[in-house]
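Researcher: Please predict.
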Amino acid sequence: MSRLVIIGGGIGGLATALSVARQGHEVLVLERAPEFAEIGAGIQLAPNGLHALDRLGVGEAVRSTAVQMDALTFMDGVTGEHVTSLDLTEHYRERFGNPYAVVHRAELHTALLEACRAEDAIRLRSAATAVGYEQDATSATVVLEDGERITGDALIGADGIHSAIRGRLVGDGAPRNSGITVYRAIIPMEQVPEELRHPTSVTWWTGPGCHFVHYPIAGGKYLNLAASSDNKATEAVAGVPATQGDIRREFAALGEDAQRLLALGEGWKSWVLVDRDPVENWVDGRVVLLGDAAHPMLHYVAQGACQGLEDAVTLGDLLDCDAEEFPQRFEKFNAERQERTGRIQLLARESIKLWHTSGAAATDRNAVLRSFSRDELHDYVAWMHGFRVPAPDAPTTRTTPA
């Protein structure tokens, strides 16, 4: 039986553990934190992400705590006008085969973690910080911070945007600082005035150099708030507390309704958004990257988690083979996933212009968005939201193992 070592116990790492273990491989997942847990708040799951979760056997568990959305709603945050909505109801669900859902990040992680714990072939080890790797023709070894070496038939780097495995494999230095700060808070839904709740919508309020998004999580018990400001931040901080004064200052250009919602937030924390340029190669022999270690993206098209889940299913399908074939299958995985994920990385950057324009440019943007029909808006997102990793027995142009 082959042994795979996965570095990183987040959403991508755990999903990959499930996917490859079901091909008959033993899996060891190494997590640098003292325990397996997920930080953060809300996460959006388009139909492509839910399809991947179904393939992993945890789709129903995630749906049990998720909130299905009826619309992605675009508001002019300065005037308070409704610009357009991307309908997510029956026609969307029939076309793409799944709803669009939002869930607390910890709930998604817990569903994957519980599924991994139920798999005899998966072992989980926390407090294990990877700093690099070594390999030879038949094995790969992860090097831990304390000098310990753990060897397997192959290594999978799922250790996020600051990946030590990527540092050795790609060597492209620190992530790119976007200069944008996102402020996040969660508030009990009961504290939100009823007319501002938007209980079945992901709602954006756009403004000059800033925008604000909110949606329900935890079965609708809380409202997740995320407000982004292009404040030219120079230091890539993470999880730094922010005050209501910071929020009022950064988002002063937004109108009354957006301000009322922002004023409800307590315990704000801030992150400076970072990403990386797309790269062509994520593979070095018996070592491969996936998820944010391979293609980290800004959150403006809400596809980061979905792409990590697609990676996990794709790689698992390809590893229906013996260990000697792992390097070739890693190359095939890279070839199948690089173009799609790179396109989404660049779209996420480009979409900043959609959210942060002002003046005449914002007026023109609103007019263009209002001109799109329901079907035209669905057509625009179809290549992202409608994607399914083909099941191994489904018709496909991909070469599958004999």
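Model: The first helix runs from residue 11 to 21.
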